[in-house]
Structures are given as C-alpha cells and as structure tokens.
Amino acid sequence: MKYALASMLMTAGLAMSAHAQQPSAAPAVPVDYANNANWLCLPDRFDACASDQSVTVIEADGASRVEPLVPDADPAFDCFYVYPTVSLDPTPNSDMIAGAEEMSVAHAQAARFRQHCKVYAPLYRQVTLAALRDVMAGKPLTADGAMAYGDVKAAWEHYLANDNEGPGVVLIGHSQGSRMLGQLLNEMTDPAQRDLIISAMPIGYNVERSADGTRGDYPWMPACTSADQAGCVIGYVTFREEMPPPAQTRFGRATGEGMNVLCVNPAALLGHAESANAILAANGISSSSNPQADWVEGEPQPTTNFVSVPGLVGTRCVNENGASYLAMNVNADPADPRTDTIAGDVIVAGQRLPDWGLHLIDMPVVMGDLVALTERQYAAWAEGRSARE
To answer: Where does the secretion signal sit in this chain (predicted)?
Structure first.
C-alpha cells in the first residue's frame, strides 16, 4: 500500500499552521466512539492495523531474508495513534468513513506498533486535502479545526473510560495527527491522565520548546534522553544531511520567540545513531516522491511491503543556523551492493521542494527504533508505577 499522491504533499501545510486560529463554527454533532465503526484500528479486529508487516531484510552483502512481524502474545500496554492529513474527501472536513487512504496510512505508520502494544486509532473529521489546497491557493480556511480536535479528544476520553484497564499508553501521531496530540497534551492537567502516558511521539511536527524546556508545547513532559525513560516526548522533523532546512523551511524552524524545534533521535536513544533501524516501503512511499531505486541492482525486487537495510541509514539531531532537525544520511560503501538512493523527497513537476525535507519518510527512517522504544519505555513506566504503589 502507498499513501495517496496529494496526501503527503499537503500534510505539511497543516503542520505549519499549528498555532493558527481556526474559524469559529457551531458545535459539531459528537461522534459516538462506542460504535466500533468509528475506529480505524482496534485490538483483536481484522483492520488496517492487522495488515501484513513482513519485511525483507537486505544485508550489506546483498543477501536477503523475509522476517514476519510476530506480535507479543499478550501486549502489556496500549498505543493511541492519530493519523496525518490523508483524506481525499471533497469537503473541508472528512467524513467518518475509512477510505483507502486512511487504511493505507494506518498500514504504513501504525500497524507495526502492534508488535508490543494494542493499537487504538480513531477516525476523526480531519481537515482534508481539499481544504488545504484551497488555503495554499490563497483562499480562506473553511475547515473546522476545532471539530477535528474535538473528535480526537472525544475518542481519547472514550478510550480512557472504556478500554484502558490500567496499563500505560504511548501516544503516536504524524503531522496533523501530531498537532491533535499536541493540543491534547497541552490541555492535559489531570495528574492521573498524565501518569498513564508512557511516552508521546508527535512525529513530523514542530514541537516548540524554550532552551531550558520550561516554556512552549506541553513543557510538563520532558524530552526523552534515555531509552529507559518514561513520561517523556520523542519529536523531530527529518531532512537529508546534505540538504538542511532552507531559510523559509516549513519544518525545523520555530516561530515562537526564544523557542527551538524539539529533536530527539530514536536511534541515539538506543545507542546506534550511526545505524538507524529504518523500515522503508519496498516500492517507495508515494507518487509524490521519486521512485525507489532497485535495492540491489540486478536482483529481484522484494515481494514484501517493507524493506530493512541494516547499517545503510544513519540519523543525528542537528541544531545550527537557527534550525533543529533530524538529519538522515546514507552510509555509502562501494563494497555494499545495496542502493545509496533512498526515496523520500517531495517532488512536484519534476522539482524537489527543499522546504519539505523528508516529511514523507519521517517515521520510516527510524520505524524499527520507534517500535523498540515503546517496549523499553513501558518497562520503565511499569517499574516507576510499581515503586509508587
């Protein structure tokens, strides 16, 4: 499966309006999250998050093998996932029917987390691609951002009241989804709710913090500095190491006075930043990027949806020239038969858009690390809760 063409081109548009006021609207009719049809993913159900996550592992000598995803027999914690801007509905806000685009993004971003957790992913009446196209064409924003957030908040409250039976929960989002989670965290004042958060992963979004971490987005939650730390946040935006954010970038530069964009490198937390555990789409992320080159020239393409290339991709946080971002590099080696080309740039009319960076593959470049961190952070959360009881 792939993201829809327009979806990943437009996702960044909403992320950059993170702190903009939304137009006022009459109160929206509440969504009934007791109805399972209003969830994109639920545990123990055949849906987008139950999709085949088998990965072809291609080693540095070109040898390959297929590894299926084997979920834990009895996951001890939950994951709550909010998807990015993908809706192809023609209206300013989406409907509550899961289309192919919502199913596809859950397959690509959320399904792998079920290795260690039970995944809950609500549908919500998000701001659509159609609405964002209008904004980028100079028209006023007609979508109801408050309704979109209201849905996510209602789904979260329903989950807490009906599905969470005491285990902690990891919050996961990308772009518009990360914005929704950010607002949820900014409004979260209940100590009991805060105590449930194993970690938050608002990926592909400018989480702004002051240098001392005391001001900005949800400062009550510190940035993660260890794989064995709970109650912390992992956030970043991604660019190629050799193509840093330009002056007018959409990502990586804070808009608030005295603020920086948060960058936490998941691979570094696990001790191997020089070799991130990238799990990439075998055939490229979407038609809005260049096609993925053959992983090994002259060899058949993988038959799985995903590819792992151990040692090929590295990541590091960079903070320079007023920008803060996760820099991805390819560890090119003439003796390594694997491609040195990783698709992921946004391409329009044959031209790369430098201000978008690698937004298309924010999660894939460290997907294996993100999943591994959930298990480590849960163990830290559980130990801390046991000590408090």
So the answer is: 1-20
Beta strands 351-352 and 347-348, pairing class: antiparallel
Give the chain's domain count: 1
Mean pLDDT of 299-303: 92
Which one-letter DSSP state was computed for residue 355? G
Task: State the Cα–Cα distance between residues 155 and 32, nearest whole angstrom.
Answer: 8
Q: Can you give the pLDDT at residue 287?
A: 56
**Contact call for residues 348 and 288 (beta carbons, < 8 A):** yes
Task: Give residue 324's domain range.
Answer: 5-388
Which residues fall within 8 angstroms of residue 342, CB to CB, at 6 or more apart?
Answer: 278, 280, 292, 312, 313, 328, 330, 361
What whole-number distance in Å separates Cα of residue 348 and Cα of residue 136? Answer: 14
Contacts of 340 (CB under 8 A, 6+ apart): 330, 332
pLDDT of residue 352: 87
Q: Per-residue confidence at 22, pLDDT binned at 50, 70, 90?
A: low
pLDDT class of 19 with cuts at 50, 70, 90: very low
The DSSP line for 39-99 is EEE-TTS-SGGGS---EEEE-TTS-EEEE-----SS--EEEEEE--S----SSSB--SS--
